[in-house]
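User: Can you predict the 3D structure for this chain?
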Amino acid sequence: MGCAKLAGQRKGAHMENITQVAPVELDRELDALAERYARAGSGAIDVLNLVGGRAEGLLDRLPKPARTGLQDATRRALEQAMKLAQTSRGVVPDQSGWLNRAVGTAMGAAGGAGGLPTALAELPVTTTLLLRIIQGVAAEHGFDPTSQSVQFDCIEVFASAGPLEKDDGADLGFLSARVTLTGAALQGIIARVAPRLATVLGQKLAAQTVPVLGAVAGAVTNYTYTNYYQEMAHVHFGLRRLAIDADVPLNDLVARLRQRLVARKPR
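Assistant: Here is the predicted structure, written as structure tokens:
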């Protein structure tokens, strides 16, 4: 989808009202987005220190039946979250970032308090909260969360690496994916994102099953995940807004952002 069509999905946006962004201002905004991207998962190391071990070893802590059914559970959670998050927008207004993190933290503590059974029950609720937060960020950047293309984008944010992953910007390709926007396509993107998100949420579930520390681990992981996806949503929709306002191809901005992230990587 081109920038012009994307602009049509911004609430009340008209092409003639778009303000051109000066090169210096464009660089400044890209620097700010790179900083936001880089710090998004900064709390992940604290999570690992709390629960012990490494991210890739967390999934081994889950019982085999839980690992086997995790992908289907995640897909169902995404489908349910799409419906509930959108419905809730007419009842509960978007909240500030700190309140979102506070709610997510409380939910994680409750989910971790009872071990795996309560953590599994909390999974779709947390997924709905995260998706609702992502929709709120989309609206903040001037996009209409009720439009199908923006709903597509909201699911795409989940395709970014989770906060326990270290990708140095390799997953920015999730910004460029586009298919024909139909109901079937939305289901297709959910199916594509579900395996990746299942791994991410599986790590969270495993952390919440740590004996004694379950509630604390649940609170910390939910805080980290809520903050991460909130920041990733700002990067995603911030780049899309910048592409429209600066009249620069999105792929060019993605490449420039990736260069900044690579430059930040310790040598």
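Residues 40-264 form one domain. The first helix runs from residue 3 to 7.
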